[in-house]
Design a protein that fits this description.
4-stranded antiparallel sheet; 465 residues
Length: 465
């Protein structure tokens, strides 16, 4: 435009070239286009890119957080010949951001936003501390907040926080906007997110729609992002807590008496008043009964016939060792299923590191529990096969050696390999008379043949002495 303007003023091409700092050939070319082709202003040159037709695929791979090198590998695998530098420029163009964002406005009762914010280490007593997070659900219209301190980001915790928040609000919004948390979204995908099954069931029960934010687009849930910053700066900072209960009670007081009663910086209104006047009536009614959380997960059965659920151990029948089973946690009951059929039921253990074992789940041929009735009964039957005297001696052995009966009983049973059952049974009879419960002495009776000696005379002599 500068060249054409100067040319219209009658300035020569040589002088124009000196003024604008370009070669005379370039000036001549521009003037020629102006005079012959009728081009009066610069035109943007649009150049296509070989990757344009694969943009959707590249966006999908970016959402999976793949690097440029990995994206290049995937495209080459599909037959696209492209260099890494081209990929890098194209990705940079997709990722490029401008310092402009759109403000999202919502109607009363339309939307709530949820997120977790790290609260740091909170004291639990005895000088120890525990990691904690703050869950925040904020109604987008009134900015009414629900906060809760939690100690993990499990699915069950995520669901419980939603239920408590709905109860606190006295209703349910039409939409709940969430970040791509694993508790709610299994796979972040802009076109079709894969929802965590139990979270999807919760949304259907309460009648709200789940809308996940796009990956790396925090402004889409900017209200709850602000809520997390607000609680960190105005509640957590500068406060000290004795223990977890103290932190929870102080947070509850702060939310009710300060947070929801202050004049909000954007709306210039008090969240609690705006909620009561305009938003509360627009929320959906709560169901008559609260949702009963039923956590579903898969676990592999270990060699010891147990599975691990929330850091506790629950037994499963031994024939399922090495297989995957489904775990349903509902209230305080743990149901374990295999291919849709229930195979075990346990009461949920309190605390961590607990073993909940049904001994029936073990292979009874491999059970080694000296106090197990079935294990003892099995050896009683084996002794009875020798004879009645062996059976009676076994009972005496249990009474005198409740914690070490196994070796003695096994030794007596092994005598059948050397002596006839009648001999072993007679030896047991003699042992009973003299109060003997030692394997070595029963063996010696068999070896010396003393089982044939008259017992009555020896007993009489023993009494006389």
């Amino acid at each position: 435009m500068t060249v054409i303007t100067l040319y219209k003023q009658g300035i020569s091409q040589r002088k124009i070239a000196k003024l604008v700092g370009h070669d005379r050939k370039t000036i001549r070319k521009i003037i020629k286009k102006y005079e012959k082709d009728g081009i009066k202003e610069p035109m943007e040159i649009r150049r296509g890119c070989v990757l344009d037709e694969h943009k959707e695929k590249i966006v999908e791979l970016l959402e999976k957080d793949l690097s440029g090198v990995r994206i290049q590998e995937e495209l080459i695998r599909e037959g696209v010949k492209v260099g890494y530098s081209t990929i890098a420029r194209y990705i940079e163009n997709i990722k490029s951001k401008k310092d402009v964002c759109i403000r999202f406005h919502t109607e009363a009762g339309e939307e709530a936003q949820v997120d977790f914010g790290y609260a740091g280490l909170l004291p639990i007593g005895n000088g120890k501390k525990r990691k904690a997070w703050i869950f925040n659900m904020r109604l987008s219209y009134s900015r009414l907040d629900y906060y809760e301190i939690v100690y993990d980001q499990k699915v069950s915790t995520f669901l419980r926080c939603h239920i408590k928040a709905f109860r606190d609000f006295g209703g349910v919004p039409k939409i709940v906007k969430i970040d791509n948390l694993k508790a709610g979204i299994l796979e972040a995908n802009f076109y079709e997110p894969i929802y965590q099954r139990e979270y999807k069931a919760l949304s259907e029960y309460y009648g709200y729609e789940i809308i996940p934010c796009r990956v790396r687009q925090p402004q889409e849930k900017g209200k709850v992002e602000s809520g997390i910053k607000y609680v960190k700066n105005n509640f957590l900072k500068g406060r000290e807590f004795k223990d977890l209960k103290d932190a929870e009670s102080k947070l509850e007081y702060w939310v009710k008496n300060i947070c929801n009663k202050r004049v909000h910086g954007t709306t210039k209104k008090i969240p609690e008043e705006l909620y009561e006047k305009e938003e509360k009536r627009e929320l959906k009614e709560l169901p008559i009964k609260e949702y009963c959380i039923n956590i579903l997960s898969k676990r592999k059965v270990c060699k010891d016939c147990h599975i691990v659920v929330e850091n506790n151990y629950y037994s499963v029948p031994y024939k399922y060792v090495g297989k995957f089973v489904e775990v349903h946690i509902k209230a305080n009951i743990i149901n374990i299923l295999h291919e849709g059929r229930e195979i075990a039921v346990h009461e949920k253990a309190k605390g961590e590191g607990k073993f909940v074992t049904n001994k029936e789940h073990y292979n009874q041929h491999k059970v080694f529990d000296l106090k197990c009735d079935k294990f003892r009964s099995k050896y009683k039957d084996k002794m009875e096969e020798i004879g009645e005297n062996a059976k009676k001696l076994y009972v005496e052995i249990l009474l005198k050696k409740p914690n070490n009966w196994y070796r003695t009983a096994t030794g007596i049973l092994a005598l059948k390999k050397t002596y006839k059952e009648e001999v072993v049974d007679q030896a047991c009879k003699r042992a009973l008379v003299f109060g003997i419960t030692d394997y070595s002495k029963v063996k010696n009776i068999c070896k010396t043949g003393s089982y044939n000696l008259p017992i009555e005379m020896e007993v009489a002599n023993a009494r006389a002495c």
